[in-house]
Structures are given as structure tokens and as C-alpha cells.
Amino acid sequence: MAGNLLIFVSNDAYNAYGHALTSGNIIYVAETVLVLALIVHVFCAISLTKNNREAKEQKYAVAAKGSKRVSLASRTMAIQGSLILIFVILHLITFKYGTHYETTVNGVVMRDLAKLMFEVFQSPAYIAWYVVCLVLLGFHLSHGVGSTFQSLGLMEGTYRDTWKKLSYGYAVVVAAGFIAQPVYIFLIGN
């Protein structure tokens, strides 16, 4: 995310960052690791959901209340994950495989991703879709990070609220960081 925020510095800084990411073979290693991580994530999510459903033979007669209540983020993880996957695919189609403009930064010819972003992020519908998906990503991360803390046994006792706040905080920072870029571009125009 930090690299994406270079758009706030300058188009050249952003383009140089994009060029540095894609000019070597490391991008292929990173993409492979990310795809494998996604596959493992989906497999684990499906397996966990299946195990949880098998563990309780029937639904509870009375819905849980208070701190025992299941959050909306928790109940909609599969829907969120599916929409986030669609978002990622469309994001890749748009930015990795989309229109190829060129620019020169410090004597090096490279792809002008900043120009592409300024072009794409002028559509209010695209901005709305982008923001909604990133808010969903925030919910997804918040629940996922909180569940990780719980699985590690950290959500017990006096630090429960601290860990919950950390998971919410992390989700807000990530979502807001990614939302800032398209909103900024939309508001300032070219």
C-alpha cells in the first residue's frame, strides 16, 4: 500500500515505483506466492466453514446476544471474499493488463500507470465500486485478523479489547489507505 500512496508525491514517483516492481523477475515470484496464498486461504476458509457446520448438528433455537453474538462481518465472510476476489480480478484486468501508456522518468521509458489511474478513476461508478469493495476488504480483514488473534489464544482475558481494537485499526488503515488513492484522483481530476 505504501507504494500506491506515492501518487500523493508525484506521478513520476508513482510510475518509478511501478516500474521498479515490474522490471525484474521478483514480480513473478511475488505473484506466484500471492496466488498460492489465495488458494490456501480459500481452501482453509471452506474447510473451516464445513467443520463448523458439522460441529453443530442443528441451528441454535435462540440467537446469541451481547458479546456472544456473531458479527455481520463474520456471517458474511464468504460473500465478502467472493466480491473481493471479483474486485481483485477486475483490478488486475484494469491495471496490470489494461491500457499501456508510456512516459519517461529520469531518462527511463516506462509504463505510465499514473495516467491510467487518472483515466480510470474519473468514473463515479468505478469509484463507488472500488470504495465499496475496499470497505468490504476492511470488514474482511478486521474479522480475519481478530479471528487470528482468537485462534492464537490472545482474545482471552484483559487484552481482548486491545486485540479487537488492533484488528479494527489495521483494517481501517488498510482500507482507508487504498480508498484514499482513487478518491484523491477523482477529486483533483487531471
TrEMBL record:
Gene3D superfamilies: Fumarate reductase/succinate dehydrogenase, transmembrane subunit. CDD domains: SQR_TypeB_2_TM. The keyword Transferase does not apply. Keywords: Membrane, Transmembrane, Transmembrane helix. The chain crosses the membrane at residues 26-49, 70-93, 127-146, 167-187. The keyword Calcium does not apply. GO terms for cellular component: membrane. This is Putative cytochrome B subunit. It comes from Bdellovibrio bacteriovorus str. Tiberius.
